[in-house]
Amino acid sequence: MTKRVTSFDVAKLAGVSRSVVSAVLNGTPGIGVSEEKREAVLKAIQELNYQVDAQARGMKTGRSHCIAAYGNVSNPMFLQVLEGMQGACAAHGYHVLLYPSSKEPQHTIDGLLDLYLQRRIDGIVALDRPHQANEAWIRQLVKHRLPYVSVEGYPHHEEVPSVLMDYQESIRRALDFLWGNVGLPPVYVEMHHGAHTLGWGDQQRREAYELWMKEHGLQPRIAAASADLSWEEGAEHWKRCIQEWGLPTAVLTNWSRGAVYVSRAAQMMGVPVGEQLHVMAADNTKRIHEYLYPSITSMEVPYREMGSAAAERLVEYIEGRRPYEDKSTQWLPAILAVRQSVATVSS
Amino acid sequence: MTKRVTSFDVAKLAGVSRSVVSAVLNGTPGIGVSEEKREAVLKAIQELNYQVDAQARGMKTGRSHCIAAYGNVSNPMFLQVLEGMQGACAAHGYHVLLYPSSKEPQHTIDGLLDLYLQRRIDGIVALDRPHQANEAWIRQLVKHRLPYVSVEGYPHHEEVPSVLMDYQESIRRALDFLWGNVGLPPVYVEMHHGAHTLGWGDQQRREAYELWMKEHGLQPRIAAASADLSWEEGAEHWKRCIQEWGLPTAVLTNWSRGAVYVSRAAQMMGVPVGEQLHVMAADNTKRIHEYLYPSITSMEVPYREMGSAAAERLVEYIEGRRPYEDKSTQWLPAILAVRQSVATVSS
DNA sequence: CTGTTAGCGCGTTCAA
DNA sequence: TTGAACGCGCTAACAG
């Protein structure tokens, strides 16, 4: 066990005072350092393998160079966002601290604020909307001027900067792709839960579909379907739909499950998916499309890019390069993943 | 923007010295605090919403109360482990810092050691074996007495404590389940890559299969198969196998993919999976079994439990409750996930 | 222009 | 129960 190396040791070995060591490391303006001394310091640092004590530095500067990732740890998508955050943070010398959203008492949303008050983190990227607390929580944020960016959070909110997927654009891209490759007017399959209430994103999608069809002089065809059917009911339902649509047909579904169901029903009927029936999903929340057969072409939510953009932006707030008052929303396009369920024209 | 609240403020409001504030918070032995002073302090803390500055505390105590999770951020399994770590850490007042394993220069394995030298972390849970560096890396660990626990890492290694799945036990449990429910002698499907080299875990599995069959007076039947076949080749191969085995049959596969292939081939032949052909996987690395139809019964690698056990153990090292010299390996059983691809007897 | 000294930040801990 | 020192790095003020 080697004892800790401090700036004092480095200074002694290099024959300078500790302030010079600090100046060399941080390029402090106001403290000039001659070339030879600078090199002596660098050499001593190398030799002793000196590492600045992060706690001591943080205490002085008031920055921990850590940001919290607040989210649902059992959601696989979360990992994508983390990956993106990680990349952006590393590029700026920040670290990512995990803070799961859960109902357990040790992980309340106030605990997250405490982390900031304890100076353990410099800001937060949230990948989950704080449930209950909502407005009260947001007031806390603003009161403490806590740097905060939400992923997939609050579109158009006055007080919370967000990074979101551009749902409309993603539908347009999907339709362009389908139309360009198979040249058939796409049917829109709209899955929903229970009482037929659409989320904000699904409303956007539907609007975009209707507009796109209009622009192309095509008649919209929308097949709404509950996601709560049993396997048997579902299978029957989708077989009937396929017969109704006729063949060949192109289909775009709002949720990933829709594409799976349609594809499966087609297979049971002996209809070759990717030839007579072209299926595409507007998202891939279960991340299973590539493992299915045939694998399903889809628009992928750009989680990694969203995480990266959010972290990037958070660092701007922290380092004062972006004013705290800028709460604008940032929109990212979905990513087209070409797979087997749609025939492609060879260029 | 409220100014930071320090222990000084609390002391003043409570009419005591700062050391008393500290003693109340930490229960310092050797500093007695009368009941009324203690309450005055607590009240002042509440009132001012005082939070200890983590950096200042850490600087003094030499502990950051952070542990690093080193792993491959693009591996979905990683998230499970994180979830487990998170739970155990929270229970002991620790935080989880993410450190991805990657080839990028900002995330070398030495960077991980530096984190420790900088006192940013108190220890490491590794979910990925540091590639190249191996022996050199382990020497570094030992040299600095860095608390370190590996998940799925180095079975039986002298210098690195590990948490692993008990492969043999998982096979036994799977076979017990199959045998108990369908009463057919299970065929073992052994997938492998290229040159037919089995990993350590797969060797364990095979041994366990052979032994179990012997103990039950059954003739082992092993079908080895390359995972590198094309879809068409694979389909042909598995159809032939199913014909060869005859019906009804029970099948246990070492990898999750094997079960998917067999199941798919059966469906193409019109053989009802879960009735005439019972399929089970010994792992579920792609985590898609529950989304397939029929969903596939499998033994699930207990990633969450492994993460939890690893973190728990790391904290023991850090807090000196377990000697650094204890490098023993810890084995965890796989978890049986009953799904549709195997018929179950109703109790 | 180069470099030093002294004091600070904040909580912990030991001697009194 | 408390005052004072300490841990480690940063930086304003100051001197060569």
Automatic annotation (TrEMBL), chains A, B:
Pfam families: LacI, Peripla_BP_3. One of its GO terms (molecular function) is DNA-binding transcription factor activity. InterPro entries: HTH_LacI, LacI/GalR-like_sensor, Lambda_DNA-bd_dom_sf, Peripla_BP_I. Keywords: DNA-binding, Repressor, Transcription, Transcription regulation. Residues 5-61 form the HTH lacI-type domain. The keyword Transcription regulation applies. SMART domains: HTH_LACI (SM00354). It comes from the Bacteria. This is LacI family transcriptional regulator. It comes from Paenibacillus rigui.
